[in-house]
Amino acid sequence: MTLTTTRRAPTAPPEGTTVLAPGRRRAHGRGLRTLLWALAVAVPLAFLAVFFAWPVVVMLAKGFVVDGRLDLSGFADVFARPRTWRIVGLTLAQAGLATALSVLLGVPGAYVLHRRSFRGRAAVRALVTVPFVLPTVVVGVAFRSLLVEGGPLGFLHLDGTFAAIVAALVFFNYAVVVRGVGGLWERLDPRAEQAARALGASPWRAFRTVTLPALAPAIASSASLTFLFCATAFGTVLVLGGLQFGTIETEIWVQTTQFLDLRAAAVLSVVQLVVVAGVLTVAGRARTGRERALALGGERQGERPLTLRRTPGTAPGDGHALALGAAAVTAAVVVLLAVPLVNLVVRSLRVGDRWGLDHYAALSDEPAGVTVSVWTAALTSLRVAALATGIALVVGGLVALVLSRRPRRPAARRALSTMDAVVMLPLGVSAVTVGFGFLLSMHEPFGLHVDLRTSPLLVPIAQAVVAVPLVVRGVLPVLRAIDPRLREVAATLGAGEGRVLGTVDWPLVARPVGLAMGLAFAASLGEFGATSFLARPDAPTLPVVIFRLIGRPGPDSYGTALAASVVLAMLTAGVVAVCERLRSARGGLAVGGEW
Amino acid sequence: MSARGLGVDGVVVRYPAVRRGAPAATAVAGVDLRVAPGEVLALLGPSGCGKSSLLRAVAGLEPLAAGAVTWDGVSVAGVPVHRRGFGLLFQDGQLFPHRDVAGNVAYGLAGRPRGEVAGRVEDLLAVVGLGGYGARAVATLSGGERQRVALARALAPAPRLLLLDEPLSALDRSLRERLALDVRAALLATGTTALFVTHDQDEAFAVADRVAVMAAGRLLQVDAPADLWRAPASRQVAAFLGYEAFVPLAAAPDPLRRFAGESGTLALAPGAFVVAPEGAGELVGTVRAVLTRRGRPALLVDVPGVGPVTALGAPADGAREGSTIALATDPSATATVPA
């Protein structure tokens, strides 16, 4: 750089930065700005009010309003039934046990897959993720095909048992813990642990007293999410549990569709809402802790290769045994995760005593009891999922955008945190409740003479309601992690609010949005709880067809169900794999979304 | 006083209470300031004194609780940040991670013809000594290079005022000293009016035409560096500038008193005492510690009637803790402040 000490005359205000004369144009601009932000708040809230709150309220009213008066005697009545207590107990026991197992197995997995490097790690990480994105009905079918009499593990006599359900729930949620905890672990500064070692702590004590507490927010956050997913599990439990076992969610379904007891269903919906609200509160607390912890980390400082033999030059007792233990546990889990998947594919190719593609050929026929072929249903699923994803992206994207702002006024900040909690509710309210509420409320909604129940938009809208929290949780942490000063710098360089959004926020958030899009798409493809109520008989989605097929007797129906499950699994896994590539592409922020 | 350039009149900045009922924090408590066109003014103060808040208020990033910010006598209160024509440079640069070096520098040039933008980007990269760096990814730059890019980016749209918020504080010392000179050169070469926030007096003196000393939300003194050093307005200002000992004139040892005026307090900077050549001492002190300042020997000496002070130099035969030593005085390192 050449040192110039001659002083040039100060510049006149350059073109393009001339100060706008005070007056109408600015007032106009500010009015437009307020209008746009008001729309960004109003559109998602209106959507959730009409398509979430209203149906749920109508459903609850069916249970609690008798002859125009509020009647809460249903609570006493339903809670007097031993069956209710059994179901609530079962729900908590299943979810609690499955969560504990997922954490116990998932923490070593997070260490091996996010803190150690080895050949094929990317493939193992992908394999671990597959169960999480599999449709719940497929998970149920995969486990049953493994455990039924005559299946590879039939000798264990686990079909229709409590253990089978817990195993399926762990299978489904292992990835939640691995990714949640691993995401924090790989950014954790290893020097704190190294300092503990230098102070005389053994590898185990250093882990227990330094690393584990640092991971606690991520563990609590993943555990509460896992608990939430387990407590509201529907498709898996419905397929595996038969009549003996269930969750509150399946019980709501049984009460509405089998016993037509809307009061009991309404009471159970309230119970579930209470459980879920409690878990969400815990998750929210843990999450703020986690977002705080993220700021501390550098990236990938502590990653070391994983070797079977102790690295030459390290002393015995330096933690190699711990690493090997974690690796062994993780290897066993990975094999166990692969078994139901491989078995599903193998069994779908088994025709009687020989091998063949007959079940796949049957996908283009209309099976008995189902009005459309599996391929037609798959097309319906894709179309519905695309629509649902579009709606969820618009609604969830706007919510994330609004929630990522940091207003100065305390009142506005409190309003935002309330909105944050409200939009997470669909994650916890029974999808069955939403679906059934749709049926009740969309016939002449608000007294209008339209019957939305026959609208082809109904299923996509219901699935979008379920997918909105996924989009928000995927995009919001990234938006919040953008340093506000980056936007301020852009503003001082002459960029208006719109240009800042387009050139600062959007490029940084584009990949997480892509990822959230994929997850929303996968969730819609597999959505079963709400869809089982709403899908029209002539246009069922793939999960609905699979559920109908396994309900029918005969090896052919069962074989077709297996083949259809493989197709559905391939579809979702393919979508998620494409989106994963977005995540691993180069550049961008070090912070990912919640999933 | 001329109405041209930046005017800050009675500006107050308050941060809202974190919780309901908690008191609001006042960061800037009524500041008046003028920056003439082409002038570089340093805002010097300890951390937490409100200087960054004042800077952000000028930029339009913090709302004014009271007072006005004007340019050429016209209030900018109704002008949004992006139309003020005030550039901003942060401590950590805040480069856009998804754009390369040229993309960062060109950000503020939107709407101009492509050829003109490319030329201006290349010119400014040359001004900050990074010619040819345009295609580099920002992740590959060192800390000093990042700040240079951030400076080029801030200068590119030719802002009528550039606000620099501790732009060199994140860098190591030698780089900081070098870059301070480079920043001054770049500001002069582009004729940019600038408000430069720093907590480092050496940096302020190196970069600025005038220095404003700030503490607890208020301005204590605004002066050219030499005047500021020669005549600090108060003991607080003197202490912040680096004067380390204060002696009431009446109680000061005789050799010191002849530099001072009639009344007030004598402020002594490191170097007010120098180790005297053999037999030329005016005062005697007791060595408390042997120091090195930038490679030159210095002693922490206890002088009766003054207290511990830093004396420059060392006796030829070395010094030990507890030994007594003869000292001479240097009037240029002293100042008189109001008592």
From TrEMBL, chain A:
Q: What is the lineage of its organism?
A: Bacteria, Bacillati, Actinomycetota, Actinomycetes, Micrococcales
Which protein, by its recorded name, is this? ABC transporter permease
Gene Ontology biological process terms from the UniProt entry: transmembrane transport
Where found, per UniProt? Answer: Cell inner membrane; Cell membrane
- Swiss-Prot/TrEMBL keywords: Cell inner membrane, Cell membrane, Membrane, Transmembrane, Transmembrane helix, Transport
What does the sequence similarity comment in the record state about its family? Answer: Belongs to the binding-protein-dependent transport system permease family.
Region annotated Disordered, chain positions: 1-22
Query: InterPro entries in the record, alphabetically?
Result: MetI-like (IPR000515), MetI-like_sf (IPR035906)
Its transmembrane ranges are 34-65, 85-111, 123-143, 155-177, 214-242, 262-283, 321-346, 384-403, 415-440, 460-479, 513-535, 558-579
Q: How does it sit in the membrane?
A: Multi-pass membrane protein
* Gene3D superfamilies xrefs: MetI-like
User: Organism, per UniProt?
Assistant: Cellulomonas composti
**Low complexity bias: start-end ranges:** 1-18
- Principal cellular location given in the protein's record: membrane
Question: What's one GO-annotated cellular component?
Answer: plasma membrane
- Tell me one Pfam family matched here: BPD_transp_1
Record-annotated ABC transmembrane type-1 domain positions: 88-281, 378-579
